[in-house]
């Protein structure tokens, strides 16, 4: 136990540029009880164990009534829809996830991500072509933000002309500071509703005219578990849109920042074709974008790390701290894409392990490799850059860079 809270210091935006010394202090104790009744878990071993423990729930209904405000931004904003599968527990979670996975990966659609590759290459090529008429840009606004929008909308079959509207809705939903005023909370609820209405109309048009996209699969294909119907469909779609967007924006921005701070890695990315895979994996560990998972609840008392996590209390799993835990990860504070057995928590673990991990990896590999190959003499304009005001996601809100020119692809 501590007073004042180290965890509050970490979620304070002043520490965003360099939270690592605070995380190191946090790991002096695996589990902390906060003054508000939340349990904060900081070490790799304990986070991993809890992610596989059936006594922790992702369903906010299991919180004691006094913790109702800890249900998290997605739960509050979407309170008129059934919870998406990220906010449910097995066995219901597993059924909903299986239906969604049927349209995304093996064995039914092993080709889904591969088929997206040419579209993604084309999108990132055009975005980088667009930098050629100047010698400075904001890597977030100009590349990192629009690229994942194009990927997730391409995956689902959202027409490209609708992307700007879509981005407008996603921003307020995900960019919660956790301490929103009633006005901001209302804006978020409105955005959520508009996105839901938009997806409803799109689903109807796909039913009438199915294409080779994921949404068409959702509304026309009955697998062994049936279809996602009504509110479950919209909850799943909104989850995919949100979960697949800002996380990847931050990974690409954190990645480019890390590469500019490690010129030897940038040089290898330019010249070694296989380097991107290892480099992105290390990036996920070293500068991953989801810093903590705020949405777990104990459904029984759990003895762990010398503490008893009490039933009905919120649990916060600090993934980014676990990823720098030197007890489990050798020289965890060093960016080392050549490390062997790179095990990390960037995509979570257990039943809720990130659904979109193959797509996120591909997007980061494509974007960072093209940037490395094409931008001539790229450099940071300011270091550290300003960080976005989200407690859960960590990444620059803007990343101004300068360069001497852009080579053709
Ligand atoms: C779940 C991280 C990209 C879809 C998760 C979780 C994490 C995560 C940590 C676990 C949440 C939990 O346990 O409560 C990331 C990161 C990404 C990324 C760091 C990019 C760098 C994507 C993409 C998609 C996606 C591109 C969509 C195509 C999902 C979904 C879940 C999820 C649907 C919920 C899975 C479930 O509850 O079974 N992600 N994600 N994510 N992610 Fe991702």
From TrEMBL:
Keyword field contains Magnesium: no
Species assigned in the record: Catellatospora methionotrophica
Similarity section: Belongs to the cytochrome P450 family.
Gene3D superfamilies referenced in this protein's UniProt entry, alphabetically: Cytochrome P450 (1.10.630.10)
Keyword Metal-binding: yes
PANTHER family: P450, PUTATIVE (EUROFUNG)-RELATED, PULCHERRIMINIC ACID SYNTHASE
Keywords: Heme, Iron, Metal-binding, Monooxygenase, Oxidoreductase
Entry protein name: Putative cytochrome P450
UniProt xrefs under InterPro entries: Cyt_P450, Cyt_P450_B, Cyt_P450_CS, Cyt_P450_sf
GO biological process, one term: antibiotic biosynthetic process
Domain of life: Bacteria
MF terms (GO), sorted A to Z: heme binding; iron ion binding; monooxygenase activity; oxidoreductase activity, acting on paired donors, with incorporation or reduction of molecular oxygen
Signal peptide from the UniProt entry: none
